[in-house]
Every structure is written in structure tokens, then in C-alpha cells.
Write a structure and sequence with these properties.
Length: 566
């Protein structure tokens, strides 16, 4: 009995010993898994439709595939860290998926995106690798969808297109004219009582086109002109025969253009006289109505005291005079700008003429208006660097025919054509990288811009194109201007061609100007040159009328100009 017990104890001790030995064996110990440092994912690159985002910011398809490639495989939760939003912050519904062994995220909109709209790709800091590392910092990248290049209006001949544009733009000067005076309102967003002197001159010329083209009957145009001219002769306020920039269309009283500009504006009056002389030459019949119209125009034209605006017999003309602050504006009319016409009319005045020395010393600054620099392969005879805004080549030359017109300072066809080609080539080169500029989208001049007004030019380029700039340059650059007209009408027409023709300005630049932006306003001084210069290109009507006026011939001859028929 005792022996069996002893043997049992020995057996137990042996088993215990084996168990202890076995537990102490290194080969039988289970080691913990080795520790792994979480790897931080970084964004390597972003592609849109297979092209790196840096090279694919514009003209993106409406349903692009966006791929974001990372340095590490990502956790599935990272899909929630990536989004596509509009420029205003609205979320875009997208499909998301991991690819490339989970090291890339693919985004694609569920529905087509809007045309010509900026979108932002946003990656926040919730991107996490499968090893647990979290992305440092975030990412935002932008792209712009393509333009709707579909044709908005049926294709018509260029002659029919000219008719369409002239007829529609005429509505500004016919339908929108002031109901009492018939004079032309400043703009569709201005106080409706404000009429503009210079814009009324442009409007008179536009009405002559309407009569010539049959958009209105000659009798209708004559009646409208009778209303306008009677108001100017008998009611509208003037100073030494010179009208203010703005008038009240009902009362004829001055509406100040600025605090010190509450009286005579010699340049605006010159633009008015330009139109009046064309009307006088056009209505040359012997009916009582036409004879009276011519007499009334002569009364208005002949009482303009051009030489009084030399101030104290200075050898220069001054732009403004005020009945309350006199010459406080103190702005000399010196070139090169839009005011050549003022000196021609002043020199040719029957009663209040200026001497040639006023032109040479004042306007031409004894040759100081010369430029002579070559820009984009074109020598610019006169004016500021790169030519300035294109209205310099329009306003005085609605009537003055620049072809074969020259003086001691320039050949004016070369001046205006080269000025326009410099403006065109600048926009085509697009040194400021504004989206949309091209050989079909060009033309910098004074116009509305978003939130204001600016005299745009190659040296003051804010990214806004004014349709009047290229279209009113049709005589100088017919091929380039027609390409712009086609684009504005056929491609942008649903946003650009409205009740009174082309709106004043636009920008297609979504990145820099938060565009696209299309103005919803029209201005008289921009609409007028469109009608008139298209007509000068088609028939030379206004050029021929204005250049036939004795006052114009006398002025040009006196100032030393060379032109056919002088």
C-alpha cells in the first residue's frame, strides 16, 4: 500500500517536472506580433480625364473622371475625405471608388456638370492609410468645364447678319429713346431721365442708317429728328452754344456728370455736331420739312463758340466749363485720344474758328502725340503704349473717313488699322492668361465691368471684352472683326445678343473674375458705333455724308490735312 503511494508521488513529481521543463522551453513560447509604424499617406498627383490637373484646368468635359493618387494604400473610410464642390461651396453628387491596390481614389459626377463653371476638388485631413497613418494638411484644386460651343442661332449670310445686328441695335435708339425729347438715354441701368449729348449724336447717325436700310421709313426718321433737333434748339440748356454731357430728357436742364462737370462739355458737343451734320447732308431735299430741319441744324451748329474754349486764348482747347466753378475741371483736350474731331470742327467753324496753332501746339503737342513704337509687328504712329482703348479709333471716325486721310503727324488709316491689330494681337497672345481670349474673342475698350466701369486697353487689361470693340473695328480689320462677330452671335448669342443688340461687356474667365459674367446693360456710346461702323464698312454712308460737309472740308484744309476732295 505504502509502495503504491510512493510510486504515485514519484510519478506525479515526474509529470510536474516534465511540465515545468516544457513550459520553460523557448521554442514553445508564442511571441507578440512585431509593432508596425503607421505610414502617413501623401497625395502624389491629381488627374482629370487622364491629364495632370496643372495642365487640365480648362475645357473639362461635363462628366470627368478625377483620379487622386496617394503614396500608400488607403482605408475605405478615406473615400469620405474627398469631395467635389461648386465655386459657391455646393456639394456635387459623385461616385467614389478605390483603385490601384487601394492607393488611388476615383471620383466621377453622377450627373453632367454645368458648362463653363468652376469646380473645386477638396481633400481633407481624414485620409488614412491602411496602416493607420493620417494625411498631413489638405488639398484644393480647381478646374473649369468646357464652354457650350453649340450654335445658338441658325446660320445666315454675313449680309443678313449685318442687317440683324444693325436692326436689333437700332431698337436702343428708337424704342429706348426718351419719349419727350427723342434724345438718347445714357444707358439701360441709368436713371431714365438722363440723356446723353454725345450718345445722341451717335443715335442720329444710327437713325440715318435705319432710313437708308429701310429699317424705318425716311419719313419716320425725319419726324424723329425733328423732335430731337427742336428740343436741342429751343429747350436744352447750353453754354456758349455748348451742351453738357447729360441733360434731363424732359426739361432740358443740366444733370451734373460730376460735381464740377455741371456745364459745357465741348467733346460731347462735337460728337453731337458730327451726327447733326450727317443728318443735314442726308436730308437734302427741298420739302418744307427738310429745309426747316437743315436750318435748325445750322442754328445749333453755328452757335457753338469753339474758340471761347481756349480759356484765356491758350493754344489749346479745354474740355469743360461750369457756370458755378468756371474752368475748375481744367482738362486740356490733347491727343492722342478720341477727340480729333473736336479740333476739326473747331477749325472749320464759320463763326468761332480756331487757328492752326491751337491744333499743333494744343492737340498735337508740337509732335508729342507721336509714338512710332512697333508692337506685335505693327508700327503705331500716334498715342500711348499699345494704343489705348479702341474707342480712340471709333468716336471721331464715325464721320471722319480715315482712309487716305493724313497730316503732318500720321496717316490715319494706318493709325487706326495698326491700333486695332495691336489690340487684336494682344488679346490673341493673352499675356495675362485670361480664359476665353482668342482670335475670336478680343477687343479692349471702355465698357462696363462687373461692379463698375473701366477704360480697358492692353495696358489696363482687366479681363473684360466689349463686343463694340471688335465689331466697330469692322472697316479696319474685317476678317478679324467678322470672326469675333460670328463667335459673339452664334456661340455666345444666347447670353450676349439681347433686346438691344449685344450687351455691353462680358468675361469668360471663371478663375480670375469669378465668371462667366455677361452684362445685362447697354450703353449709347457703345451701341452707336456698332451700327455706324458696320455701315461704313458696308457702304461708307456716314463717312461720305460727314466728309461732304463744308465745315469739315474747311477744318481739315485749315489744319493741313490731305484727303480726297479737299
Amino acid at each position: 500500500m505504502y509502495k503504491r503511494f510512493e510510486n504515485s508521488i514519484v510519478c506525479c513529481m515526474l509529470i510536474a517536472s516534465l511540465l515545468v521543463y516544457s513550459c520553460g522551453s523557448k521554442s514553445d513560447v508564442v511571441a507578440p506580433p512585431p509593432s508596425v509604424d503607421p505610414k502617413v499617406p501623401t497625395l502624389n498627383n491629381v488627374t482629370v480625364d487622364g491629364v495632370n490637373l496643372n495642365n487640365a484646368r480648362y475645357n473639362i468635359s461635363l462628366k470627368p473622371q478625377i483620379k487622386l493618387s496617394f503614396s500608400q494604400p488607403l482605408a475605405a473610410s478615406s473615400l469620405n475625405a474627398v469631395s467635389l464642390v461648386t465655386a459657391t461651396g455646393s456639394m456635387v453628387s459623385v461616385n467614389k471608388a478605390l483603385s490601384n491596390n487601394d492607393s488611388a481614389i476615383i471620383l466621377q459626377p453622377v450627373n453632367n456638370l454645368s458648362f463653363l463653371t468652376r469646380f473645386n476638388i477638396i481633400v481633407n485631413q481624414d485620409v488614412q492609410s491602411v496602416s493607420g497613418g493620417t494625411m498631413t494638411g489638405g488639398f484644393t484644386g480647381s478646374f473649369v468645364t468646357k464652354m457650350d460651343s453649340s450654335r445658338k442661332f441658325p446660320k445666315i449670310s454675313d449680309e443678313a447678319l449685318f442687317d440683324t445686328v444693325q436692326r436689333r441695335t437700332l431698337k436702343y435708339f428708337w424704342d429706348f429713346a426718351h419719349p419727350v425729347s427723342g434724345l438718347i438715354r445714357e444707358g439701360t441701368k441709368h436713371d431714365s431721365k438722363i440723356v446723353t449729348t454725345g450718345g445722341s449724336g451717335f443715335g442720329i447717325m444710327a437713325l440715318l442708317v435705319a432710313a437708308e436700310r429701310g429699317f424705318k421709313t425716311k419719313a419716320e426718321v425725319l419726324h424723329r429728328l425733328q423732335t430731337m433737333i427742336a428740343f436741342l434748339k429751343n429747350t436744352a440748356q447750353h453754354f456758349h452754344g455748348v451742351y453738357p454731357h447729360w441733360l434731363d430728357g424732359s426739361t432740358g436742364e443740366v444733370i451734373p456728370f460730376s460735381s464740377n462737370d455741371n456745364g459745357a462739355d465741348l467733346v460731347e458737343t462735337a460728337f453731337l455736331v458730327q451726327g447733326l451734320l450727317c443728318a443735314r447732308q442726308y436730308f437734302d431735299g427741298m420739302t418744307a420739312e427738310e429745309v426747316q430741319l437743315r436750318d435748325d441744324i445750322n442754328t445749333i451748329v453755328n452757335r457753338v463758340q469753339w474758340n471761347w474754349f481756349q480759356k484765356e486764348n491758350d493754344n489749346v482747347l479745354y474740355w469743360h466749363w461750369s457756370p458755378t466753378v468756371s474752368w475748375a475741371m481744367n482738362l486740356k483736350i490733347q491727343g492722342w485720344n478720341e477727340c480729333l474731331l473736336t479740333y476739326v470742327l473747331a477749325a472749320g467753324s464759320e463763326n468761332y474758328s480756331i487757328a492752326k496753332s491751337v491744333y499743333d501746339n494744343g492737340w498735337a503737342q508740337n509732335g508729342g502725340i507721336r509714338n512710332g513704337t512697333i508692337y506685335y509687328g505693327y508700327t503705331l504712329p500716334l498715342g500711348p503704349n499699345l494704343g489705348g482703348p479702341l474707342f480712340f479709333a471709333h468716336y471721331s471716325f464715325l464721320g471722319l473717313k480715315p482712309y487716305e486721310l493724313s497730316d503732318a503727324y500720321a496717316d490715319y488709316w494706318t493709325q487706326n488699322r495698326h491700333h486695332t491689330l495691336i489690340n487684336y494681337n494682344y488679346c490673341k497672345a493673352n499675356p495675362k492668361d485670361y480664359y476665353g481670349y482668342s482670335d475670336s474673342v478680343w477687343g479692349l475698350t471702355a465698357s462696363n465691368i462687373r461692379g463698375g466701369y473701366a477704360a480697358s486697353s492692353p495696358s489696363n487689361d482687366l479681363g473684360y471684352i466689349a463686343p463694340t470693340a471688335a465689331i466697330s473695328s469692322m472697316p479696319y480689320t474685317p476678317e478679324e472683326s467678322l470672326a469675333a462677330l460670328h463667335f459673339y452671335y452664334y456661340v455666345l448669342g444666347d447670353k450676349l445678343f439681347k433686346e438691344y443688340g449685344f450687351v455691353d461687356a462680358f468675361t469668360l474667365d471663371v478663375m480670375k473674375n469669378d465668371g462667366p459674367w455677361f452684362d445685362d446693360a447697354f450703353l449709347a456710346i457703345d451701341q452707336g458705333p456698332i451700327i455706324v461702323m458696320i455701315e461704313n464698312y458696308r457702304s461708307g454712308l456716314l463717312w461720305n455724308l460727314f466728309m461732304s460737309a463744308p465745315e469739315v472740308k474747311n477744318g481739315l484744309s485749315k489744319l493741313g490735312f490731305n484727303a480726297p476732295g479737299l
